Amino acid sequence: MNVSKCFPLALVILCITSCKLSKENNTEIETAGLEATVNILRDQWGVNHIYAKNQHDLFFAQGYAAAKDRLFQFEVWRRQATGTVSEILGPDELERDIGTRLFQFRGDLEEELNHYHPNGSEIINAYTDGVNAYIDEILQTPEDLPIEFKVLNILPKKWTPEVVISRHQGLKGNVSRELKYGMAVAKIGEEKVKELMWFHPNDPNITLDPKIDASLLSEDILALHKAYASGVQLEEQDIDKDYLDDGSNNWVLTGNKTESGFPFLANDPHRRVALPSLRYIVHLVAPGWNVIGGGEPEIPGVSIGHNDFGAWGLTIFRTDGEDLYVYDLNPENLSQYKYKDKWVAMKEVEDEIQIKGEDAVKVTLRYSVHGPVTYIDSLHHKAYAVKCAWLEKGGAPYLTSLRMDQAETWEEFRDACSYSNIPAENMIWADKKGNIGWQAVGITPIRKHHSGLVPVPGDGSYDWEGYLPIKERPNSYNPTNGFLATANENVTASDYKHQNTLNYLWSDSYRGRRIKEVLSEEKAFTMKDMEKLQSDYFSIPARSLVPMLQHIKMKSEKGEEAKNRLLTWDYILDEDSVEAGIYAMWEHIIRQEAEKAFIPKEVTEMVSIQLEKIVSWLEMGTETFGPSFKKLEKQEFLRNTFRLTLQNLEEKLGDDIMQWHYGQANFKHSTMKNAISPFVNDSLKKKIDLGILARGGNSFTPNSTGNNDNQVSGASFKFITDLSDWDKTLMINAPGQSGNPNSPYYNNLFELWAKNQYFPAYYSRQKIAEVTDDTTILIPKNR
């Protein structure tokens, strides 16, 4: 791929300043660091369309515009990335800051930056320069800072490229589960753990090596890792008292299955639903660049979207990139650990952490041959370290999207994918020539001596044997059935030759099965069909469970009425459906009671049972169900859980069955709260908090809305495109593009999203001009 080639639409850049936009909507800003004038056209939905005359200015402007929209989000990211949260939130965040510095990337910075793109160093430096340019600008009028800065009484600080490449928000591995499974195996044995868990597609070895003293395993071992990976929460003492009164689907179809005759591609990544949104939509245009889509605002480029030639999307491909190693320490020198029959000295790094209201703390960060040492048990002469694939070069989340953004063909896209180490994903592709493809990406350890599901000795007997080349991960190109779809379930063929590199833990297959059911229909699909499928609330587990009530006699009249309602129901978890409300509570009670019955008390915090496992037990043609070590009578379990369902609904929503409908304030809804909400007065709270809006679905419907009453996970960003015409592309990003409550784009998309609707994500200059709200012209200062 020639990264310097020009896209045809780039010629438009030259005439932008002469386009007839209303003068009162134009803002000119002189900015140091630019090489030429940049135009940022903001459309009515809040999307910035950035037109630059060169690559440097394009990414400078992306950083500038994103920081302007999400400044407090940027400051929190920077502090998490640099281990400086204690500076503003005090000693409770010390463990996080130590963990962050312990798991910091310490390789060659220039090599790291240029892994993501041949011009990666230039792009990322330009991006951070743009962020800093906006910070310089806003600090000239600090009274205009977003409210969060005033409440915390802080100012934003400057960015460096090290902040962009931080791994703190990445989806990295399963080391916390690994510790829990090891503890569970020690308590109840590997066979019981295997029966409760749904390990597949292969049978893992989860035997604890006799060299591991299981009695010493505890949650404390990974406390630093857990603190590092957790989100920042504000506490009351951190607030200025003056302000007082906080998974995924994708699919792609060939033109043979669409009304337009061109491929369709759809993607709705499921992550935390929060205010501001995790995602940010942008359109980047310059010579060699013309890409639009969503990504995380703190990262340059676009991770989900399209350019002139093709479109792409992602879902998580479950991959284990972490292992927990256990070492014997030298009793005479606790800074030495046994590795390959020799005592090896830990590498030590001295650091100092500033803490709000207290003296700075000096810390010693320690590393073994495998990675960061998270815990030293000096009493028992043991140490524990985490081997992290994501600390290798190229482990910053989503940054390799920069290469994907310029791909023109499937071959170029796969080449770009081969650099995508973190997170491990199902990348799908479609191009205007009619081709579709799927490539699993992500850095993948080769383990020849263990499964990676329990802690192992760090003496060298369980070392990884390198990484599998990404192009050798599962993939497909132009399949005969005309579509590809992934939803975090196992989609790897049984004859895949690198089975030992696959994870053993996958999502329930319900979302994926429903999507494939719909896409397998013999019809010419329309964009409306794609919208409907992304918004689909059909529950496959309901279709399995509800018929089991057919021959069960309930002991109350209300029980019979509720049962009969479900037996004539369409299995759709609509927000206004009484039947959906009854079923959703029943499904919850089934999972709750099954786990209570089958999981031994001593491991309730260590293992869980997936719904698909429970349903598979219930579907067996026997009178009892459950693991071999404990069985329950099936009909009595169904009757009892249904009785508990009615009891819970009466306590939650009252005696009237007609008030048990699903989407309501006390059941399924969306409320988004600003981080400072618990600490401000009612009038400010009303301004910064959003909701309550009705929702439907749950974790097992294609429109995944989680299993809490208030939706806290799911797809806040959605993307659908018809490759016949890029101007037909649809997107949504809840609750809005800006994180500043004073912006008109703070919550303008919230209701649209809650109603499962979209806005047109225009690509052509003509269409963009028709919906432009205002234009910002960045002018080089002193040039």
Helix share bin: 25-40%
Give the strand content.
15-25%
User: What number is the mean pLDDT?
Assistant: 94
* Major sheet strand order: 1-31-2-3-7-8-9-10-18-19-21
Low-confidence segments: 1-24, 240-246
What's the total number of strands?
Answer: 31
Provide structural commentary.
The protein has 783 residues and is of the alpha+beta class. Helices cover 28% and strands 21% of the residues. The protein contains 23 helices and 31 strands. An eleven-stranded mixed β-sheet has the order 1-31-2-3-7-8-9-10-18-19-21. Strands 22-4-5-28-29-30 form a six-stranded antiparallel β-sheet. Strand 9 and strand 10 form a beta hairpin. Helix 1 packs across helix 2 and helix 4 crosses helix 11. The chain is globular. It starts with 25 loop residues before the first strand and ends with a strand.
Short summary:
The chain is α+β, with helices and mostly antiparallel strands and about 775 residues long.
Question: Key features?
Answer:
six-stranded antiparallel β-sheet, eleven-stranded mixed β-sheet, alpha+beta, 23 helices, 783 residues
SSE map:
Layout: E1 26-31, E2 38-43, E3 48-51, H1 55-69, H2 71-82, H3 86-89, H4 94-102, H5 109-115, H6 120-139, H7 147-152, H8 161-164, H9 175-188, H10 190-196, H11 223-229, E4 248-253, E5 264-269, E6 271-272, E7 280-286, E8 289-295, E9 304-306, E10 310-316, E11 322-330, E12 333-339, E13 342-345, E14 347-355, E15 358-367, E16 373-377, E17 382-388, H12 401-404, H13 410-417, E18 425-431, E19 436-441, E20 456-457, E21 475-477, E22 483-486, H14 510-519, H15 527-534, H16 540-545, H17 557-567, H18 578-598, H19 611-619, E23 624-625, E24 632-633, H20 634-653, E25 669-672, H21 682-688, E26 690-694, E27 713-714, E28 717-722, E29 730-733, H22 750-754, E30 759-760, H23 765-770, E31 772-780
Parallel strand pairs: 1-31, 3-7, 11-20
Antiparallel strand pairs: 2-3, 2-31, 4-5, 4-22, 5-28, 6-27, 7-8, 8-9, 9-10, 10-18, 11-12, 11-17, 12-13, 14-15, 16-17, 18-19, 19-21, 23-24, 25-26, 28-29, 29-30
Helix pairs in contact: 1-2, 1-6, 4-11, 9-10, 18-20
